[in-house]
Design goal:
three-stranded antiparallel β-sheet, alpha/beta, 14 helices, single chain
């Protein structure tokens, strides 16, 4: 299928594999790109030297387009951006920051830029900054999220109403049926995160992948809004956060509890009690761990079947 997203990235299907911290290394990104979608390396959990290594390995593993997701809140952002240019990466997804800061700089160097937003307000700011496309992410999504708790179902048509550039829907999308629904609402494509966590090629710890597979409705919750809203699995760490909230904690007290490297401890090292386990609400629909190629094939089959199924309307 061909549309504005497939043409923008030169891919077969309008699906982006999200660049998630501790999950989206070169194996996942290259497998995604080889499957006909856009693979993204998640720079948020990588030191600059590690990012360079993942980019180089990804280039060797696939000859298809891939990109890097860069949260802009890190102190070594200039070094990260320099590495991306030096290694010839042509697609960058930015998030967690002002798109004006890097969009022009990247585009002047021949990079296609996409920015992730959680509201109409920030979608308009991103379009004004000159990005090539927008990811609008509803609060169903895993990981860090919008404070307004706007759902994908309402966010996508509201953003579509206001922008002219390609729109990619994210948050709660793990099936072909959800992909079709998002596109009916106005999206040109979808970004998928949680479903690819539970893939063979994800760099997540096997214990965390099993948590995703075992998750049921209501097993995740958005919390820590005072720091940066994040959707977490309800484990011991999550319960500790809720107990602290009963005491009306200060931001400093929340930061002390959070400490350092909680996400690494949980998702990458497999500490299911003390670690931060970030996953979306859609984990309740994920029942197995599969190769990326199979996930993509299944999604496209589901998409086509769902599309045929609504012809009576």
């Amino acid at each position: 299928m061909s549309n504005r997203v497939t043409q923008l990235f030169n891919i077969k299907y309008p699906i982006i594999q999200a660049g998630m911290v501790w999950n989206s290394g070169w194996r996942l990104a290259s497998a995604a790109s080889d499957s006909g979608i856009l693979g993204l390396i998640g720079a948020g959990s990588m030191y600059p030297v590690v990012l360079r290594e993942h980019i180089q390995k990804c280039k060797k593993a696939t000859n298809k387009p891939f990109g890097v997701n860069v949260p802009m809140l890190y102190p070594n952002i200039q070094e990260i951006m320099d590495i991306i240019i030096e290694e010839g990466v042509k697609i960058v997804f930015t998030s967690a920051g002002n798109p004006k800061t890097w969009t022009s700089w990247l585009k002047e160097r021949g990079v296609t830029v996409v920015h992730v937003v959680s509201s109409v307000k920030f979608a308009l700011k991103a379009q004004e900054a000159g990005v090539d496309a927008i990811v609008a992410e509803g609060f169903e999504a895993g990981g860090h999220n919008g404070r307004d708790e706007t759902t994908t179902l309402t966010l996508i048509p509201m953003v579509k109403e206001q922008i002219q550039i390609p729109l990619i829907a994210a948050g709660g999308i793990a099936t072909g049926q959800a992909m079709l629904a998002a596109m009916v609402l106005g999206a040109d494509g979808v970004q998928v995160g949680s479903r690819f966590v539970a893939s063979n090629e994800s760099s997540a710890h096997e214990s965390f992948k099993q948590v995703v597979v075992d998750a049921k409705e209501g097993d995740t919750q958005l919390t820590l809004k005072e720091l940066a809203p994040v959707r977490l699995v309800k484990n011991k760490f999550y319960n500790d956060v809720q107990e602290l909230y009963k005491k009306s904690p200060t931001v400093e007290e929340l930061n002390v509890l959070l400490g350092r490297a909680r996400a690494k401890k949980g998702m990458f090292e497999g500490d299911l009690e003390e670690g931060e386990l970030e996953i979306g609400q859609v984990s309740g629909l994920i029942h197995n761990i599969k190769p990326v190629a199979q996930i993509v094939e299944d999604m496209m089959k589901e998409f086509e079947v769902a599309k045929q199924g609504v012809t009576f309307l």
